[in-house]
Amino acid sequence: MRVHVADHPLITHKLTVLRDAKTPSPQFRSLVEELMTLLAYEGTRGVRVEPIDIVTPVAPTTGVRIADPKPLIVPILRAGLGMLEGMVKLLPTAEVGFLGMARNEETLEPTTYAERLPEDLSDRQCFVLDPMLATGGSLTAAIQYLFERGATDVTAICILAAPEGLAAVEQALHGREVTIVLGAVDERLNELGYIVPGLGDAGDRLYGTV
Ligand SMILES: O=P(O)(O)OC[C@H]1O[C@H](OP(=O)(O)OP(=O)(O)O)[C@H](O)[C@@H]1O
Ligand SMILES: O=c1cc[nH]c(=O)[nH]1
Ligand SMILES: [Mg+2]
After folding, report:
1. How far apart are CA 139 and CA 101, in angstroms?
2. Is residue 91 within a helix (H) or strand (E), and if so which, with residue range?
3. Alpha-carbon span 135 to 162, nearest angstrom
4. 202 known member of a binding site
5. Which ligand places an atom closest to the C-alpha of 195?
6. What is the Å distance from ligand 2's center to 5 Cα?
7. Atom of ligand 1 nearest to the CA of 133
8. Domain span at residue 190?
9. Nearest C-alpha to atom 22 of ligand 1 is from which residue?
10. Based on the structure, what is the number of domains in the chain?
11. pTM as predicted
């Protein structure tokens, strides 16, 4: 498993505003989208391309285009939905599938309550979007599910991770073709399973629930 922490002052700046408890939902949503565009740049570094011949006004040349089958973007509902728009801006021809997951706030165990994905993922490059990697339970379950459905190449893009959760995902997915791109790795998890300093509950902050 490869882990890449995007290190860029613009990301750190936007993350700081995102973390601020005073940042209201509309601004939070815009910032998640902007951050996603920056993280998608890193996250799509390995996107599969194929050569294509074109003619410029000056000369014929060979360029590249996104290869078929098109990549599959999988936002984890709810919070991952906030990242989708930023991602499809960079990969407009990608297909989008959905996984709905909720973490039980007492046991911290994830359950999957919705799934809408192509039947066969065997030759699809998958990009999973979820802003928060806390205990890592949700991301591990999501990626394992994609592998069960035939996926072999998965990149997860998260805004924040806790070191404990990142280690748990690495252990669970050891030896698999997985890349994780992160905006930042925070200090730790607290006793309630929240990332510290983190940004609180990403879903609640995106969608105005408390
Ligand atoms: O690493 P974990 O400990 O599993 O926690 C992370 C999960 O928690 C959040 O979702 P949540 O369950 O709050 O659902 P929501 O997006 O609907 O708010 C987040 O978006 C992740 O999916
Ligand atoms: O800090 C956390 C942990 C899990 N889910 C969130 O939205 N935030
Ligand atoms: Mg939530």
Report:
1. 9
2. none
3. 7
4. yes
5. 2
6. 18
7. 1
8. 2-49+63-207
9. 138
10. 1
11. 0.97
Task: Tell me which long-range contacts 152-155 makes (C-beta under 8 A, separation of at least 24).
Answer: 152/122, 152/123, 152/177, 153/124, 153/125, 153/126, 153/177, 154/126, 154/127, 154/128, 154/178, 154/179, 155/43, 155/44, 155/46, 155/125, 155/126, 155/127, 155/128, 155/179, 155/180, 155/181
Q: Which of 107, 108, 94, 110 is nearest to 143 (CA)?
A: 110
53-102: pLDDT as tens digits: 999 999 999 999 999 999 999 999 999 999 999 999 999 999 999 999 99
CB atoms closer than 10 angstroms to residue 41: 13
ipTM above 0.90, yes or no: yes
Q: Is 55 among the domain residues? A: no
195 is in an annotated binding site: yes
Q: What is the C-alpha separation between 83 and 89, in angstroms, rounded?
A: 10
The residue length of the chain stands at 210
Closest CA to 143 of 170, 109, 108: 170
Ligand 1 nearest-atom number relative to CA 138: 4
Mean pLDDT of the chain: 96
Q: What CATH number does residue 186 fall under?
A: 3.40.50.2020
- Residue 9, judged by CB atoms within 10 A of its CB (0-12, 13-18, 19+), counts as exposed
- Nearest one of 91, 78, 77, 79 to 39, comparing CA atoms: 91
90: how many CB neighbours lie within 10 A of its CB? 15
Q: Domain for residue 57, yes or no? A: no
Q: Is 54 within a domain?
A: no
Q: Which residues are catalytic?
A: 103, 107, 201, 204
